[in-house]
Write a structure and sequence with these properties.
It is a single chain. By secondary structure, the chain is α/β, with parallel strands linked by helices. About 30% of the residues lie in helices and about 15% in strands. It contains six helices and seven strands, in the order E-E-E-E-E-H-H-H-H-H-E-E-H. A five-stranded mixed beta barrel has the order 1-2-3-5-4. It is elongated and about 55 Å long.
């Protein structure tokens, strides 16, 4: 049985990208009234929250569009009905997840490149950088050596200096893994629902602050 949690949760994101729009409703939605009404699924563009979005009356949403969202009727933005789990996503939403996160990571290149400059050890045996898929001890050593010389400045800089062919994909794959909640440590996505089994390292907040990132969200 799925654990109980509060229906109206805080969603830290102010904008979301539409992953799936179902104008006739979601036949597999756990809320029966959502099976016959327009509903959308999206992902937050700042903290990667998965959300169920209620379109305004008569409004048609487009997959891939960025929309303002809100959990409060007193604030502008499309109404968030609730946060979603990865397993709540429709097949189409899951298919669109990778390219949508890729778009967000590319857009926030400086934020994610900064991770290579500031990531720290988690304990004496494990470094945060090793949580990115494909980074083992050898590549970790190369990254640490290079950043002592000078900070990384772009994904292209990372490719050239430490021979990582696709640094964007490392982040995309890691973020999807964190959304699936199958890890103990979480670099970027706060596990939802929370559990004492998860350790959230909250790197996004640090990275946004370090580079003074403001927008686009």
């Amino acid at each position: 049985m799925r654990p109980r949690y509060k229906r109206f949760q805080v969603v830290p994101d102010e904008f979301a990208i539409i992953l799936d729009y179902m104008p006739m409703g979601n036949p597999y939605d756990k809320h029966t009234h959502h099976r016959t009404m327009p509903i959308a699924q999206g992902i937050g563009t700042k903290y990667f929250s998965l959300v169920e979005i209620v379109p305004a009356r008569g409004q048609a949403l487009i997959i891939g569009d960025r929309v303002p969202i809100s959990t409060s009727p007193d604030r502008p933005g499309l109404r968030i009905f609730e946060r979603l789990l990865y397993e709540d996503l429709s097949t189409i939403a899951k298919e669109n997840l990778g390219k949508t996160i890729t778009k967000i990571v590319e857009e926030k290149e400086k934020v994610f490149v900064e991770f290579f400059n500031v990531a720290e050890p988690i304990n004496i045996r494990l470094h945060s950088l090793e949580l990115l898929p494909g980074i083992g001890k050898k590549t970790l050593s190369m990254i640490l050596d290079e950043r002592r010389k000078s900070p990384f400045t772009s994904f292209e800089d990372v490719r050239k200096r430490v021979k990582i062919s696709d640094p964007i994909k490392l982040f995309v794959d890691r973020i999807i893994t964190e959304l699936q909640r199958v890890e103990r440590y979480y670099l970027f996505v706060e596990p939802y629902p929370p559990s004492p089994e998860y350790k959230f390292l909250n790197y996004l907040e640090l990275l946004y602050r370090r580079i003074g990132y403001n927008e686009p969200w």
